[in-house]
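Notebook entry, structure prediction.
Reason for the run: the old model in the group folder had no record of what sequence produced it. Starting over properly, with the input documented here first.
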Amino acid sequence: MRVFPVLLLLFVSFSSVTFSVKSAESETTLSELKRQIEQLQQQVLALEKAQEAEKLRQASVAKQVQVSEEAKPETMPEKPLNNTLRVYATMRPTLGYFDEDAESFWDVRDALSHAGIKATNEFMPGWTAELHGEWGIDISNNGDFGKARRAYVAVGGPYGRVAVGKQRPPQYLLIAEYVDIFNHANSPFSYDAEGIFFVDNMVTYRLQTGGFSWMAASQFDGDSGNSSADMVNLGLGYDQGGFHGAVSYLVQDTLEGDLTTGEDEVWAVSLAHDFSNGLYLAAAYQDKTYQRDLISQERSGHTLDVSTAYRLSEQFRVKLGYFDFDDGRSTLLSQRYDGYNTTFEWLPDDNLRFHIEYLTKNYDYLSDFDSWSIGFRYDFAKDWRF
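New structure, fully documented this time:
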């Protein structure tokens, strides 16, 4: 900082002095030259003092800025958005032509329209509280609203999730859900005959570790059946990539009025795979034993549902299903049947779906059932975080 201006002044001054000596040697004396050198030295000293003063001023300003920054209050971190709220609804009317019990007719029906609200709150790190209410909308019956599908509160944390109220049982979540892909209120068509979809007065537990889902549930309906446990449902599922596999066990009291007449015992297995080429395959099987207090009434049956889907393009999809149901009853009372269905879907938007479906059920001892139907489905959901 000091050397360059000093040299510059020396160079300019000496150049000036030399020029002066050469241009007027006769008039310049040695004393005049000494006087000019003294003036040059005084200018250099003045420049050095000015530079030192500027350094001190800059240091003082920097110190004041530092003190000012330290005096500012610390900025409080923003509170994370750990509360969520979802309001949703889906409307699913169908128009169908039915051939049932030797009678043919047209009818407007409903494919399980419903609406609901779900809220969650992370009340401490890793722990969440959840409430969920969902109610059916019956388009085929005056658009009636209010039949409860879900109504529960749950608490989840590092050690699993516990929920109390009306909710989906493991039997559906692990077994039936993967074949329940059709736009029909009675899908899956074999499981639907005697399977469970929603259970009230139920306590559930779920723990997810890696790809495994451990689930347990029990129904406690004290005013009917066995007040200690009306139903116990255990299950284990494994999901990895597009693969799903699960096994479950269910035992449930059977009732006639307020009297317990026995219990149903069900072992079930499901397999499903969603391939990257747009193909989906799934199968669910239940082996059911009807244990009754009267030995003569004991029997065994099964349900089998196979579902496939293939995405032809982004907007078009075809689905096929095969099902087989056996209730284990004698010939005169049996409702045993098998059948298949095929569905073609058009999905012009993520929340809009149109379909046409053909369904047939072939009963062993009853009249067969056939139907053609077209349907519309519109889904709505709104999410908030706060």
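Summary: Confidence is low (pLDDT under 50) at residues 6-15, 17-24.
The old model has been moved to the deprecated folder.
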